[in-house]
Design goal:
Elements lengths: L2 H36 L13 E2 L9 E2 L11
Antiparallel strand pairs: 1-2
Length: 75
């Protein structure tokens, strides 16, 4: 394999990488257009699962706290 073939192969790989990035950004833009057209907000976190809080030495292993948000006074 000579140097010219390797350069050509590398150039081809870079071109396909740029094409792939363009396709991904285009699809992302189309999804955002659909979201705004249909009135769907894409910045909402949605429902988050609760995670058990385990504090060693307290005997409270496995209590699950709700994850409502930063204004939750149960924490």
């Amino acid at each position: 394999v000579n140097v010219g073939e390797e350069k050509s192969k590398g150039l081809q790989t870079m071109i396909w990488g740029i094409v792939a990035i363009f396709v991904m950004v285009s699809i992302w833009g189309l999804v955002r257009i659909l979201q705004s057209t249909l009135g769907i907000r894409g910045d909402e976190a949605g429902m988050r699962p609760s995670v058990p809080i385990i504090v060693p030495g307290t005997g409270q292993g496995g209590q699950s706290q709700p994850t409502i948000g930063p204004s939750n006074s149960n924490r």
